[in-house]
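If you are new to this repository, start here. Below is one unmodified record pulled from the training split, so you can see the exact layout before writing a loader.
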Amino acid sequence: MSGYLLAWDLRGRRVLVVGAGSIAEGKIETLRGTGADIVVVGPAPTPRVRDLAAAGTIRLSTREVRRRDVVGARLVVAATDDRSVNRRVRRWAHAVRAVVNVVDDPALCDVTVPATVRRGAATIAVTTDGASPAAARFLREEIERAVPPRVDELVDQAASARRKLRESGTYRYDYPAWRQRLFEPGMREVAEGRIASLGELRRRFIAGFGSTTPIRTGSVTLVGAGPGGADLITMRGAAALARADVVVYDRLADPALLDLAPVVAVRIPVGKAKGSGTDQEVINATLIEHAKRGSHVVRLKGGDPFVFGRGSEERDAVVAAGLACDVVPGLSSSMSGPALAGIPLTHRGMSASFTVLSGHRIAEADHDWDALARSGSTLVVLMGASTASEIATRLLAGGRPADEPVALVHRAGRPDARTIVSTLRELRDGGCPLPAPVVIVIGQVVTLADPTTMVAPANGNHVESPSSMVAAPPPWEQHATIRSLVGDGPRTNRDQRTTTSDDPAHAHRTSG
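And here is the target side for that same chain:
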């Protein structure tokens, strides 16, 4: 559980620091500039603590702490190297309802103090909730190096602009406008040392505030989220999310992926499920609307945007609106789903090609079922959970063997992933017992599934057998028994033309 960061106004309030050594010195430094009445009690002050007392920055008593010292304090910082003293101070402080921070002892703390980077009115805080103060300090040092020393000048200009806009009655919180028109150009000026130009930048910002013409042209990036877990997105996809102003996302994308976007990014769900979801035209209009405002819009889609994802339609709509559209490929579940379940799509001597097809609205599809049934290739069906029985029926009618191995891979890459291994006959008779999303793999390669991969903690997959399905038997169990084909060993493919190798000369028929 993470602590909730607050900025506490300590102006004029008494803060007691118990201890005057090097530990306490660090805490005193973080309190300077808060306007607090800092009282320090400790028998052996460091030279720096003595200097601060001589300058009137703190009030120092060179003695051991007493109970009455906590009276009137709003915050008590126990910063000694004696845990028994720290515990006693904590008990005294709670008796007068003061808030307590005990250095390097999170269990005794009411609050922990983050490592901070201060630039005038701007303060950047880093905390590990007391787990590792050293880690917090390291991160603070890294941030300190990254943030220009005079960024406070830009903060001051922003404060001035806000004040003047409020006085004129035109102020509103429009973050994209502030970022694009003031902060981004202003940060470049600060980084290059042109501090004097910030005033003119502020004046132009105020004059153009409310303009509908963005200073930055918006854009759309179609990002493939991959098959499941947030750790399966590409680095380029994660980078696009990190700079997103708006994220328009599908239900198939792992919710944890949204954490990669900035906290201030607008998140718009448009997930499609059977009988629900947002119309494609509305999705297209949403992308265009936000991009025209100057926002960087990320369209986050499960799998790969161009594999049964209607990504090309969205790209065409965005480009037709005169906007830039980038595409970041993702790991398509057609290939990664079986891989996460330990199933190869091609294997020397067994299958030299694979075909990916959609199971959605198969009555309207242009699939050549007889050709698919006769082919020696592995078949991978996406969006086929509800039409699995009909698909199996058509393949059997075309001559595909009834005992052809079938794998149903559900939510590959997620902790709750499930894989059922069966046959084409059983799929026809019972349909798919798993809810969408399911990747259906049909072919002899299913016999090569690696049981150790399927139970690997990293992807959470497991093979279900009859004994594990007793509590909730699948529809097809009334017709036949689910047979785990894992470990049966390779079978000779009936089409000898595709069994010799995975030579590139063999055409791999894929849909993306």
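Two things worth knowing about this chain: The longest strand covers residues 219-224. The chain has four domains: 14-113, 151-208, 219-331, 334-498.
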